[in-house]
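Exam revision sheet. Question 4 asks you to relate a sequence to its structure. Input first:
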Amino acid sequence: MSGQDQAGGLVGPAADVLARLVRTALDEDLGGDPGTDVTTTATVPADARTVVEVRLREPGTVAGQVVWVPLLADAARRLGQETPVVELLAADGSHGAAGDVLARLSGPTRTLLVAERTGLNLVGRACGVATATRAWVDVLAGTGVEVLDTRKTTPGLRAWEKYAVRCGGGTNKRVGLFDVAMVKDNHAAAAGSVVAAYRAVRSTSPDVAVEVEVESTEVALAVVRAGGRFLMCDNMTPDDLARTVAAVRALVAELDGPGGRVLLEATGGLTLARAPEVAATGVDFVSVGALTHSSPQLDVGLDWTG
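Answer key, structure tokens:
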């Protein structure tokens, strides 16, 4: 997911990831590569040129602007036309009001029409995720607690949606199954216990961060005694969560000394209304699957100006 630095210091999806996303989306719309737009080909002269503006129809957090350049370049290649000029007027991560112009695009009309729906789909999706994430970041402001995303993403759009989470001020937890280990209830059942599962993962993948899902204070303490220092507290009440946080931090201080560090995450059934109460328990993170699996699309349109 690393890539060149974008406006606002955000790092967008790597160029190859973005190129693959654009290529797949255009193939889907055009029926292959180069494919065809039967309506545009029939009604728009090849030499026609247009200026259009990408505009927010409702307020929200801007995200996905990084798509316009590679998208229009790929569309132009397929049509054998010059690549339209892209003027970005709002940075990813910024707040936009209804009616704000995000970008101005100018060039061959056929290319702009071919790319229009793909671009609006991707930008609208990204803005929706970023806007939902920003709501969590705002409600947690001043608590020191970060909001994390999860793997509950749209297949094929994970890199895009995780970038949108960052645009909204959130933090990416892990990319997939390969970069961070997460011991959950099914792994514990297969291994015989949570502690056995943790030890098995730590033994086979010593250089990978390991997070362990726990559902009680007792299990959390057992994992800490086994060496675990990254715990996900699942579906605990605020009172149980507070007791678990206090007990775990006390045990880590006893085992590792005053400088001992453990990372604690709350997850399961979280809502914006409950977020301040959960943050007050002393956790470091809250993880919210709804950022990516339930965020509504933000309404973004494309208006012709000439």
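Marking note for examiners. Residues 7-133+295-304 form a domain with the Aldehyde Oxidoreductase; domain 3 fold (CATH 3.90.1170.20).
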